[in-house]
Amino acid sequence: MKKLVFGLVLYFAAVSVWAQNSLSGRVVDTQSGEPLIGASVWTENLGKGAVTDETGKFIISKLPDGEVELRVSYLGFETFRRLVTLPFSGDLEIRLQGKDFLTEEFIVSSTRASGITPTTFTNVDKSEIAKRNLGQDIPILLNFTPSVVSFSDAGAGVGYTGLRIRGSDQTRINVTVNGIPMNDAESHGVFWVNMPDFASSVENVQIQRGVGTSTNGAAAFGASLNFQTDTRQDEAYAQVDNGFGSFNTFRHMLKAGTGLLNNRFTVDARLSKITSDGYVDRAFSDLSSWFVSGGYYGENSVIKLIAFSGKEQTYQSWNGLPESLLKTDRTANFYTYDNETDNYQQDHYQLIYTGKVASNWKTNLALHYTYGRGYYEQFRKNDRLSRYGLPNVVIGNEVISRTDIIRRRWLDNDFYGFVGSVNYYSTDGKLDIILGGGANRYDGDHFGEIIWSRVAGTTNIRDRYYDNNAIKDDRNVYAKATYEIKPGLNLFGDLQVRGINYSFQGINNDRRVLDGQEDFAFFNPKFGFSYEKGGQTWYASYAVANREPTRRDFTDNPITEVPRAEKLNNIEAGVRAKAGRLSYNANFYFMDYTDQLILTGQINDVGAYIRENVASSYRAGIELDGTFQLSKAWTFGGNIAFSQNKIREFTEYIDDYSVTDFRQESITYTDTDIAFSPNVVGSAIIEFKPTKNLSLNWLSKYVGQQFLDNTANEGRALDAFFTNDLRISYAAQPRFFKGLEINLLINNIFNEMYEPNGYTFSYFVPGNTGRELVTENFYYPQAGTNFLLGLSLKF
Q1: Domain 237-794 in CATH: superfamily?
Q2: Omega prior to 87 cis, within 30 of 0
Q3: What sequence ranges are listed for the domain Outer membrane protein beta-barrel (predicted)?
Q4: Of the residues 178, 239, 325, 497, which has the maximum number of CB atoms within 10 A of its CB?
């Protein structure tokens, strides 16, 4: 140790004498003369570098005398190389020549909003995602974007996580990756646990709130998330990330790329591993993933082959925590069987072509295939044999109708199809037209196995007690046009036709026969305008979305009472602006639902709770967000949303066990709050940069009271909460590394005890006065103060 310390002292002493020179300059676009922000400036022989600031300037300090091999690179421009002899007086003027490659942004442009599109959206780029990416899932990384409430079953942001936007849950949020739909065709949900560390391969994401623009897959019935994966990097690179944190959370990530080979080809790859014990007892997560991308870049075309996969095993914490344990044992887990686990793997393959096919014409085509398979295992104590289609077991004079059983419920599915678009843009820039659409098929098997039974009888291992199949075809075509009728004033139109054919047959997990087919045809028009003047863009739009019921709505409801499709009429109006150091957005929205599907307490013929259509409901609100750079050291940002979320009338059904013959009592409500829809959601971020390399961030999040059901009953609610996080980031460019970053994230620094998610049910039982109403609330508590620490090395 003494030798090590002495050696380090000598090393730093030598460096302080040896490194005396600075090299500074400015990087601009040769053609326009505009500064290039974020260009990479690197000394090849010394392993030191810098990134240009908002004026295109850079400075590299502590360089020795002699020759420096300088390399400057920027996406879409030719790499600049030059030998510079130090000491060097004055500033370098470096001009980069643009390349004629087709941009990859067109891959996602057909389903995205632009700066003049009259809808409400937020763009999050790679650098913003990376600041928080220490192993937690995407819903947690997006927690501070407008109107978002995120949550985690295991309480620490790893494993099963979810988010709501404007109160709309994941089944109502459309998700695409490179324009290809990710939502499960039957449940409409996206299970982020199947995409661990996917954020490490994301270039950017656009969050559209409300109906937004036409997209592929399940309808955007509250919001949409549009991801673009990593784009081309011209220089070879490698990156190693390692991190650890509370609850034995570890993250390891290795990423590398070839850069541009022969001026045409690239290959990029990533491997990730994330493990965590979770905040909740036994709620561990064991997650692994990989990502591979190969690209060809011509002057008029780009071809990309992308494959990525996620594999997860998590111990179940789905049951939540009873209200009685909230103050005594917040980490309690209902499950105790040692293999009460969820196991699933999902592989994605995408072949994408985008190209300039003629003057003023571009096209984008993609083929895709997803293979998913897995199961969850459950121990069922003293379960009825009849639930599994098994006869009673007779042993001597004893008739056994119940026994302990271990079961597995499987999914094995294929999802494949194509999406595409053609774009025409006029030479004068006034007209832009996109014609697009897609056709996709889902083929899914659902089956359950008995893998152990205490009293077996005639049961064999892996006996299937249910087995059914579903096929769903989803087709859509759309046409979008933007036309500038005079300088600054743009009209927007978007027409989509979507058709769904859904068929299912076999035996359901409640042993009922499933044989049905449903067809839907939807017309989704959207219209609006935007007006640009003085750095401001004013916009207003009206959009319609229709959405088919989910699988459970069909399978749980009696087939003679199939629920109706939902319809949403959405008005958005607002202004977005950027002036100097201030940027802001302000908007109003009104989302009017017809036949929205909600839980009412109604049960079907085998006792399962079903969703029913309510005739009329709405969400209305105001959203404000912005950032202000007070100085070079201080930046303030934040957002807040105020809303009313109401069901005009619905009927609740409550189980009544106080009578001899079971029945349900009905209660009608008017003008009640929609479940899980807080009236206030806000966040704030304060950044302080005392030096160029050090950043301190204070992040606050407030979520108002949420109701667990649609009765607006104060006894069935989630309390409002206010959390605060501290993030400390240090970035440097030491010798032999392109970059070194250390990130420390301290979550919930004031140890707030809060629950952003839960569920409830009520029933009548016999009581002293005839009967008594019992309400049982269950919650998903989130971790108190905890930390994540990450080290990233870039080569």
Answers
A1: TonB-dependent receptor, beta-barrel domain (2.40.170.20)
A2: yes
A3: 566-755
A4: 178
Name 64's Cβ contacts closer than 8 Å, sequence gap at least 6: 18, 19, 20, 21, 46, 86
Mean pLDDT by 10 residues, the chain (795 residues): 46 45 88 82 80 86 85 79 85 80 74 91 92 92 96 95 95 95 94 95 95 89 94 92 96 96 94 97 97 93 96 94 94 95 97 91 95 96 93 91 95 96 90 95 96 87 92 96 93 96 93 90 96 93 96 77 90 93 95 93 73 94 96 95 96 90 90 96 96 94 97 95 97 84 96 96 86 93 97 93
At 101 the pLDDT is 53
Scored b (16 or more CB within 10 A) or e, 80-111 reads: beeeeebeeeeebebebeebebbebebbbbbb
DSSP label at residue 75: T
**Residue that has been written with the tokens 């990376």 in this structure:** 130
Residue 673's closest CA among 640, 714, 702, 622? Answer: 714
What gap in Å lies between CA 164 and CA 142, rounded to an integer? 11
Residue type, 247: F
Neighbours of 55 (CB within 10 A): 11
Helix (H, G, I), strand (E, B) or coil at 183: coil
Tokens 């219209």 locate to: 527
Nearest to 547 by CA among 6, 174, 260: 174
**DSSP letter for each residue of 116-127:** TSSSEEEEEEHH
Q: For the chain, what are the domain ranges?
A: 19-96, 237-794
Q: Is 477 within 8 Å of 436 (Cβ atoms)?
A: yes
What does the DSSP 8-state code read for residue 8?
A: H
Cα gap 155→175, rounded to integer Å: 24
- 567 strand-pairing partners: 546, 594
Distance of CA 513 to the CA centre of its chain: 35
Q: Bin 115: left if φ > 0, else alpha if -120 < ψ < 50, else beta.
A: alpha
Kindly tell me the sign of the dihedral angle through the C-alpha atoms of 630, 113, 482, 179: positive
Tell me the C-alpha distance between 182 and 163, whole Å. Answer: 15
Mapped onto helix, strand or coil, the DSSP state of residue 657 is coil
Q: How many CB atoms lie within 10 A of CB 501?
A: 15
Residue 337 CB partners (closer than 8 Å, separation 6+): 378, 379, 406
- DSSP for 307-346? EEEEEEEEE--TT-EEGGGTTT-TT--S--STT-EEEEEE
Q: How far apart are CA 323 and CA 67, in angstroms?
A: 70
DSSP three-state, residue 5: helix
Per-residue burial over 631-652, b = 16 or more CB atoms within 10 Å of its CB, e = otherwise: eeeebebbbbbebebbbeebeb
Question: Whole-prediction pTM value?
Answer: 0.88
Q: Quick one: pLDDT at residue 55? A: 85
Short-list 579, 617, 570, CA closest to 596: 617
Query: How far is Cα 66 from Cα 64, in angstroms, rounded to an integer?
Result: 6
Beta bridge partners of 180: 177
CATH assignment, 19-96: 2.60.40.1120
Q: What are phi and psi of 719, to 5 degrees?
A: -65, 150
Contact 158, 136 (CB under 8 A): yes
Query: Could you give the CA distance from residue 304 to residue 306 in angstroms, rounded to a whole number?
Result: 6
- Spatial separation of the C-alpha atoms in residues 334 and 327, rounded to whole Å: 16
Burial (CB count within 10 angstroms: exposed 0-12, middle 13-18, buried 19+), residue 185: buried
Give φ, ψ of 236 to 5 degrees: -60, 145
Residue pair 283/317 in contact (Cβ under 8 Å)? The answer is yes
